[in-house]
Amino acid sequence: MILLAFALLAQQLPAQDFPPVDRPGADPMIAADLRSLCPAAAFTDRDAALAAERTQGLAASSGNAPDAWLTLACTRAVLSTMKGSSRSGPLMLAGDSWAQGAISTGVKVLELRPGDRRAADILSVFAMDEADVQALGRVVARLADAVKAGANGGPTLRACSELSLRIGRVDLTRRCAMAALAGGHDSTGHLLVLARLSAREHDSVNATEQFVKAASSAHDSIAKLAVTWHLQWFLTPAERTVWASLGDGARGPWVRDRLISRDVRDGQPTGARIVEHFKRLEYADSSFRLHTAKVMGNSMMRGASAATVGIDPDFPDTWRDYNRWQLVLDDRGATWMRFGAPEKRSYHEQPGVTMRNGIKVPGNSFEAWRYTLDGKPLVLTFAYEPFSGQVGPSRMVSGNIGDIYCGIDAWRCTLGARAQTRGGVTQELRMQVRQQDREYISEATTKDDNSPRGDKQIEVIARLHRLWEVNSGSPFAMVTYAIKAGDLATQKASNGSKSALIDFNLRRWDGVSGALLDTVFARRVTLPDSTSKQSHLTGFVVTSATATLTSWSMVATQPDKRRGRMWDDVTPPLDRGPLAISDLVLGQEGQGLTWNYHNAPLLLAPLNAVDRKHPVSLYYQVRSERTLAVSHATVALYPLLNGAVTTEQPALQVGFDQALRTGINEFAPVLDVSRLAHGSYLLEVQVADDHGAVVTRRAVTLNVD
Hints:
Largest sheet: 6 strands, mixed
Radius of gyration: 31 Å
Shape: globular
Number of strands: 28
Helix content: 25-40%
Mean pLDDT: 89
Distance between the termini: 34 Å
Structural class: alpha+beta
């Protein structure tokens, strides 16, 4: 048991491990800004600044001189950059921060002198940097007056557009953003604001265009961070690494490709993902925002640690496996940004107890969420977190069982009931629950989804093959599919046979050329009788394609809200060199599908799995720009474990020489897989030129039963 616990703790925690990114508009260089905005208040000694603030506060409050209030605003702004607590004074209550004091004093200056650009910029810098601004409506009103009076500095216009959107003053948002763009101020920030505004108005075309333009205009580090703040809510860790490495000219097209690939993956109209992103942000920002003092940052972000052996010190039965990487939204909000509203939610309040030694152990509150994604469950648990500013469960945890899961997760519900019996639940079972939770947490914090949820899942198996027309050399796609018969709603004919009508949507996206292709078709299929061993209905479709497709999806639906899909959003393009190989087409007798291509029957394997007792047929094409009397092909199968090749030595390898003519060459070897063990394999074909150098290769995954 000790060894099992140690093994789990030794694994890398399932967190994104992103570097923290401050919210849009927050200024990491406030001190530098103040040197230009408040040259007379460049104090280096805190005691001197405190003394000056006291004197200036008395002077300002004795009259209504704008300059006196502006001087006080500058001193308070400088004090906010120094360590130490604040104090009450004119326009400041006990507990207000120096930053809030600078904001309140800036508002006072603008009430007396609306066109004061320095006061407007000071107010704007701190209002954007503060997570929660007091009297936000009053701040926005003063900024609107300042802009109208001609105070059109970059910080003022940015705060005007951002903060007015937060309180719903849409016309002011648009006016300030457009004025800033016309004046060349902070293009990235204002384009992001306009994208959010367009999304709020359900304008997916403009929302996407503005978001992509924002990424294209992010030339400096601050602008890039503003885009990153939004991308961090749905990029995978691998995508985040690529984004960080992109140069100026590549950012816009790359973001466009990520957004459209997700729309293709989710079977949604173009622009749906970015509109959903902003819609989720609106809800999460109002429902799951953390209200935490900055001094609590480290403790709020840490997960498991060696000191606590992964156990929450406040609630010893709860494991805190998730390393929070930001302090804007709680863990519910971070999940909501990636997957939206859960399918089911359950809440449980745990009362406190008094131990025999008289020590009072506080209670806890828990909330469980369940999603169903492509037929697979995703169950998450949140617990109350002290000092987070949240009154409900907000910290993602693992290892819990109990009646909170009844209706959410039958296994955990059953374990909770067993825990109340004399035998209880073994520690091994509890660790299994925790390990499953860790996998769920990893899924919830590194992936995303915007696919419509069907009332019933249809299992869809599909594979896209890009080939070339033999005579013309034009690329096309042949897509095999298999639908689980038991998942379909059927109609019964008078003769007793059953049939089902299925609507299909095959979407393809070429991130290189920018081509988006849709093929919509319907099939009425006859279901096998009850004595048949056929579990899936199979078929294929031949349609248009490009050699540089980067993502695709096959979505199957029925009118009674049944839905299923299969997709790939990291499809590697076909080689463009003088020697190139097509996608690999696998086939086997017994799967009920044959493709007559140029009057030659080609067996297909739509289940993406083969029976090792029968030979496997392989079809592929090689495109050559010149005639080669001799080339060499190698077919190798490598074992896979969790999607990764486990050894450099293939489990099966065959090689043969082949002649190539100029144009498209076809090959159809047959493989004996009878000696392979059951499991998953990577089947790779390499083609070497007449000098023996491998020029092109292609691979496909294969399950051997």
